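User: Here's a protein and a ligand (fe (ii) ion). What would the complex look like?
Assistant: Let me lay out the input and then the predicted complex.
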Amino acid sequence: MVEIHYHLLFGVDDGPRTLEDSLALANASAAEGVTHIVATPHSNHEHRFDLAGNREKLERLNERLEGRLTLGLGCDFHLSYENLEDLRRDQSKYTINGKQYLLVEFSDASIPAVTSEILYDLQLNGLLPIITHPERNPILVQNPRRLADWIRGGCLVQVTAASLTGRFGRRAKAMCFDLIQKNWVHFIASDAHSMGGRPPAMREAYQVLEQEFGRDTAERLCERNPRAAFYGELLELQPEPLAIYEEAQPARRGFLKGIFGR
Ligand SMILES: [Fe+2]
């Protein structure tokens, strides 16, 4: 299996604190059958993204792993104005292994109406945005139809492995199942942070997928699609996303909702 969203680097964000903590995570993933991990530190108002520093830490980790895993570098990219400005200057700084796939994380507090245009604009610039864990975003849990707009526009979707197994509650799990059923999901990833807090969970998620949706879906979401993203290749032909052209339920939109999108 291949992990494309994973806080593996020590001392850079709210992930592992020491090199030994990173190694514990990496070893746990290798033990559950993971072969590749993209380390994706946050880039947001709390955590500064330092590409050179990240590369150096990845290298130190690599030395200790002695080939047990293939590591890559990306970013848990928060869709903020500052980040977008910097992305304009250097796209490869934030994408998975400097190729075209970009993890996109939304704020829990607001997803502005202009987001669709931003995502479209990213694609015009050759990027393939991957919306991360919509099932853990309160705005998207409330209104999953907003995803349809982005999927119609060509965005991809990643859900969290532990959401599938129920660790983030019944609602997140139900939403994952619904999204997978509708073919709106392209990737599963652990989004691991630490062995104690948020450990890797790919094997268990794979088993749930295999049991509920069949082996081919489990392989596609945990292995083939993330591998393509790791190497910057195109995804295989995906099953057609269902119900993305249905009319959204007419929602009552107040003045603030129109502006802030919630
Ligand atoms: Fe993350």
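Summary: The chain has one domain: 2-234+253-260.
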